[in-house]
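Example record

The entry below shows one chain as it appears in the dataset: sequence first, then structure tokens.
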Amino acid sequence: MNRKAECESVVLTKDEKRLLKKIHKNPHINLKWEEVESLADMGLIEEDDSPLPKHGLYSADIMSGTYCTTEFYDVYMAYTHWEFNLLVLKSLWFPILVSLITSLIINGIVQLLLLL
């Protein structure tokens, strides 16, 4: 499956989006598995495997229950931003551009008719 198809298959609820942003901003956040199970199944988060500071030193011990976003999260966010920009382009700028061109053409035709 390619990236676009994978991104299109992700459907998140409002609460899942909020939780995903929270995890992205706080990568070592401690959460219950039940809260993040659906996000982990979609591949947007994974269990945190980076060493955490312990008494000033970095330890290989990992606190269970901490999660961080994956590389697929970055791909998914870039895809959603791209889709949003396309939507804005289609729904806002395209009609404005069509109206402007139409107005210019009509004004040009009226000026030519006045010369006759």
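Notes for this example: The mean pLDDT is 84. The chain is about 65% helix and 15% strand.
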